[in-house]
Design brief:
The chain has one domain: Ribosomal Protein S5, domain 2. The chain is 36% helix and 23% strand. It has eleven helices and ten strands. Strands 1, 2, 3, 4, 5 and 10 form a six-stranded antiparallel beta sheet that branches. The protein has a four-stranded antiparallel beta sheet with strand order 7-8-6-9, with helices on both faces. The N terminus is likely disordered.
């Protein structure tokens, strides 16, 4: 299993005033469209988690291997506050979710870093400012952004027409949210022979090549979200939820067929989907660009049975339940 990175908070944070923020991971079931306002459906997971500690220091410090990701956030906070220097604090990343696996690790880390620095520096900033301006997230779907502050299932969509840009700095609204039953489990699997990931420049170029969803497909995706996925989630109807999620994911994935070769991103991911289907697992799909593949189970026992005899070239990244709570914030004056 690809475990989260972990460092002991008590021994590593040092003395003085400190803020600790802990959040989960995000599964994305698919966008409503390939152009603004995008929209989408997804859910927060309790594992793998991301944990950040910001403590008092004489100057700004962060781990060298996170400098490229945390440094720009600190600079944007400096500009936002009007300060001459970067905030005087030490940022530590105690745990992170695996990157490029469909778990939204970049968004969760950026939000945790931005919010924890703001709290440590006593900076007042609205959630949309933290997300858009300081963390520089929420450029497309904002399932993970809303999930950070809300937890649970998220169905989000914008009010503007397809292709129109929403008001600057605004996040798509949460149309509906839901808490999933604690007994439900979701596995995230990753094919070990998947030889490419989609992010950054390649992701931006892919979106430029995509055609908008047809009126028919867009309507059906919204119908699935509103009339099937969310009601089943709220009522705890596992079979209905799983089946609707699978259908929604495959249809949303078809919007990306021209750049990923079908509803799923490549042969390796498709092979994992087919293996799950052959085993009778209803609620399967690709999270975001993959290569993470999700599979829903009604209980821990069902998950263990469904994942038995897993192919050698497939890795179990996590077996988790939904995180129905927002990120956790802990502030200590002495550690």
């Amino acid at each position: 299993m690809n475990a989260s990175r972990t460092i002991d908070f008590q021994s590593s944070a040092g003395g003085g005033f400190a803020v600790r923020v802990c959040t989960g991971s995000r599964l994305h079931f698919g966008l409503l469209d390939t152009v603004r306002p995008f929209g989408g459906v997804g859910v927060m997971l309790n594992a793998p988690s991301t944990e950040v500690v910001v403590s008092t220091a004489d100057s700004f410090r962060c781990p060298d291997d996170y400098q490229d990701r945390i440094g720009p956030i600190a600079e944007r906070i400096r500009q936002f506050s009007g300060a001459e220097k970067l905030p005087s604090c030490r940022v530590q990343v105690l745990r992170t979710a695996p990157t490029h696996c469909g778990l939204g690790s970049g968004t969760q880390l950026a939000l945790a870093v931005a919010e924890s620095i703001c709290l440590h520096q006593a900076l007042q900033a609205e959630q949309k400012t933290i997300a858009n301006t300081l963390a520089s997230r929420g450029q497309r779907s904002v399932v993970g952004t809303h999930g950070y502050w809300q937890g649970g299932m998220i169905y989000e969509a914008g009010d503007c027409k397809a292709g129109e840009k929403s008001m600057e700095g605004n996040l798509n609204a949460v149309q509906q949210g839901a808490r999933l039953p604690e007994a439900w489990r979701v596995a995230v699997l990753r094919p070990l022979d998947h030889d490419f990931t989609v992010s950054g420049k390649q992701e931006r170029e892919n979106f430029l090549r995509l055609k908008p969803a047809s009126k028919k497909v867009g309507h059906e995706l919204r119908r699935l979200a509103i009339n099937e996925i969310m009601p089943a989630a709220k009522l705890g109807q596992f079979n209905a939820f799983s089946d609707a999620t699978r259908v929604y994911n495959e249809l949303s994935g078809s919007l990306f067929a021209s750049v990923q070769g079908g509803s799923y991103n490549g042969k390796a991911v498709t092979r994992v989907i087919e293996w799950l289907s052959d085993r009778g697992v209803l609620g399967h799909g690709q999270s975001s660009w993959g290569p993470g593949v999700f599979a829903w189970f009604e209980s821990q026992d069902a998950a263990e049975a469904g994942l038995a005899s897993m192919p050698d070239n497939v890795e179990l990244v996590t077996l988790a339940s939904a995180r129905n709570e927002p990120r956790a914030v802990q502030i200590k004056s002495k550690i």
